[in-house]
Please model this.
Amino acid sequence: MKNITPVLSVFLLLAIALSCKFLSPKTSKDGGNGPAIDFTKVAKPLNVTVQLDKTHTANNKISPAGGSISLTAVDGSVFTLEVPANALETETTITMTAVKSIKGAPLNNETPTAVQLEPSGLFFKELVTLTIRPAKEIPIKEQAIFGYEGNGEDYHLAAVDPKSKDIKIKLMKFSGAGVGSVSDSQWATNLMVQAGSASNRIWQKFGEYSQSVRMDMLLGNEGDSEWNEKYKSALDQYEDQVVAKEMVAAELDCKHAQKAAEDLLALERLRQFVGLEGTRDMNAKVAKLQKIFDSCPRKSYSASGKSTGASFSGTICSLDKPFEITVVSITGTWPMRFTPSSERAGQMEGSFSSNGCTIAGGGPYTITLAEDGSGTIEFTYNSTATCPAGSRTTSVTTKLSFQPAPPCL
Model:
């Protein structure tokens, strides 16, 4: 097989070794060469940058008897929030503000049809409904209906009324919600966001179950007789909410094939751990992901530019993997590290020492790409210089050019 990464090569070898064991429900419980389980791993949500249109806002006092509030955005889109009776314990002033733009979200453009609802974090005892009527119709197959927390934290796909032709988002608490259009690759990213969120929550369950059993055993307690069934239930959810979504995402955008393969292997190892039968159609799923992976073009980029007396250059093998850009200035040469939250946004950081001084800091970055593959990366470096004579804090925004580059080896 050509152009196969070491990780996927190991996966295929393990999958072949596993295939002969699927005939028996009693498999090895030593974990084999599978990935180590890190129960302390914290979820990395997709955070976006939201800009509000404060010239288009509405507010209303909603009592425990219920009520509604409506807003028309500058483009003519209409938003209506309906609060049923008994959803609130006390009268509360609710504010609805139109969203001007959202940067960093997996959407076709940065101007989705959305609103921010406040007070942020307000919790309801009953489901409330936000109805959105976009001024410009979005084809059903292109609709991505989303929500976020606070001022742009934890972007995610929103729960909707599946029987309604209108866009009706169901909420239990505030902050933002809206609808935008997506391409296949962006829809794949949305699915990967869903899968990532579910994955971290289910891994937490694995940790809870296994640590509880271990504690009971060491303390001589009777223990939970249903532990095995609970573990199996969590594994079934992992297959449905993580692996299945990632496999669909891989079909929509081949760059997700390797992640889907890795999590398919993780599922198999976890099932082996408690002696359960292997994943159904495992070999067919392996072959399908391999075919997707082999046919996937590798997109790499080179970044370069100058700012405030320094020059910048670097090769980016993948926009959704961490990368480095090297800074060359009169003080020396040092790397800036970039960690994506999506293909188009993330956080950067960097530090260096020179002449007894240390400079360290970081900030957000965004990437813009044109149809020909060229584009820009813009980042804000908020840093503090600490020297024997004192310290100084600065903030510098830099924009570098992007060009397509040969695939990384």
Summary: Helices lie at 6-19, 184-219, 227-252, 257-273, 282-294. The longest helix spans residues 184-219. The longest strand covers residues 390-405.
